[in-house]
Amino acid sequence: MPVHRSGLPRIRALSTAGAVLLALLSLPPAAAAAESSPGAPPRGSAHMGMGVAAHDGSGGLPTARTTQTEGVDVSSHQGNVAWKTLWDSGVRWAYAKATEGTYYTNPYRSQQYDGAHDVGMIRGAYHFATPDTSTGAAQADYFVARGGGWSADGRTLPGVLDIEWNPYGAACYGKSQSATVSWIRDFLDRYRALTGRHAVLYTATSWWKQCTGNYAGFAATNPLWIARYASTVGELPAGWDTYTMWQYTSTGPVVGDHDRFNGGLDRVRALALG
């Protein structure tokens, strides 16, 4: 049957739309879920505190007078780290990003994680949570299988769940407060089952209030790593009356984000030993 010329653009448009639909249907579910908002950074580039300065502002150096132990946290943004330089500056513990979601492993993880250990630091690994891409249990599995485990050697800190502002889209990952709490519990329970340790929770008070409704139920078991770039930690999330670690700046004097452990080196070792 002959086709009238006025119908050709419509046929071409339908063909194009069909091709796009087929392409989308062929994507694996994880890839489709991991798409970012326009203008967002590339997946995998997130790191501790990425949204803290933007949402909570920045301030001066800590004024606390209690005994604290200097630490750093690093990711692929720092590349190969000069660990001896950090050690000489007084840093005694470190965390390196290991994974994000179920789609990214830090390519510098070995140099960072093993390098910190080699100069004498107590070190651990952290996971950047993306609750919109897969379940908490799946991400805990991915994390532990790729360097986020724990061993009772006195030099390995428990893994950290970095849960904060979504750099790729909606701040709370499109989840309700109750769904966010359930996702976090899913991750923490799975990590505990795999390693025998309670993971550390890294977050900022304002995000915690916004996205979990200031849930207090994890404080009895999970150490708190609070993010606040100011001279004091300020208000803590509900349930915690103290913090274990404090990320106080993203512009450290040597490299990476700098942190304070709330206690002397003996307390850092105690956390490592469990």
What can you see in these coordinates?
Helix 6 (136-148) runs parallel beside helix 7 (177-195). The protein is built from nine helices and nine strands. It has helices at 8-26, 29-33, 52-56, 83-88, 109-118, 136-148, 177-195, 205-212, 265-273, and strands at 69-74, 93-100, 104-105, 122-128, 160-162, 200-203, 224-227, 245-249, 257-261. Mean pLDDT is 85; it is low at 1-33. The protein has an eight-stranded mixed barrel, surrounded by four helices. It has one domain (52-273): Alpha-Beta Barrel (TIM Barrel). It has 274 residues and is α/β, with parallel strands linked by helices. This enzyme has both lysozyme (acetylmuramidase) and diacetylmuramidase activities. One of its GO terms (cellular component) is extracellular region. GO terms for molecular function: lysozyme activity. InterPro entries: GH (IPR017853), Glyco_hydro_25 (IPR002053), Glyco_hydro_fam25_subgr (IPR018077). It comes from Streptomyces calvus.
